[in-house]
Amino acid sequence: MPLRIFSKAPDFTLQTADDETFNLKEALKESEVLLFFYPKAFTKGCSAEACDFRDHFNFFKERNVRVVGISHDPEETQARFAKKYQLPYTILSDPARTVCRLYDAVYPFGLLTKRVSYLINREGKITVAYENLFKPEGHLAQMKAKIESREREEEKSRSAALEA
Questions:
Q1: Would the pTM count as exceeding 0.85?
Q2: Which residues in the chain land under pLDDT 70?
Q3: Maximum CA pair distance of the chain?
Q4: Tell me, what's the pLDDT at 164?
Q5: Tell me, which fold does domain 13-163 have in CATH?
Q6: In what helix (H) or strand (E) does residue 116 lie, and over which residues does it extend?
Q7: Where are the beta strands (DSSP E) in 6-94?
Q8: Which of 35, 113, 128, 146 has its CA 20 to 30 A from that of 60?
Q9: Domain residue ranges in the chain
Q10: What are the CA-CA distances from residue 77 to residues 13, 54, 71, 84 (Å)?
Q11: Are residues 116 and 103 in contact, defined by beta-carbon separation less than 8 angstroms?
């Protein structure tokens, strides 16, 4: 079961596939973060999921949402994965599954990383959590639906304020 909605997202620091340092707290100063965990680079489902986020990257970029993928694969594998699929977003390596455990993204006995996604607002709160190992395309759909729903609510609020 993923972390609870409105709970504080655990802070962490990991190396990117480009050998840079990523820190969640620092990233949240600039944008929301869509964090998705995937079991293994280059597998059919994980490749499809990563490419879905790639193909809809502008949707998130236009809304100031930083997309970040994480698996337990080593940095070299993550770098090859990002290059092969031309992923325009941050890919992180968590070989010890430290961050995966913080986000309840490890199955019992630590043999497999879960497919789970989180949308984290700039205050560091989880606003969407979605877990589904067998439906990689559902992760993109859930995140987009939440953002679009929020945009509709904000527009309604603006309209109501103008009418008042």
A1: yes
A2: 1, 164
A3: 57
A4: 66
A5: Glutaredoxin (3.40.30)
A6: strand 116-120
A7: 13-15, 21-23, 32-37, 65-71, 90-93
A8: 113
A9: 13-163
A10: 19, 18, 10, 10
A11: yes
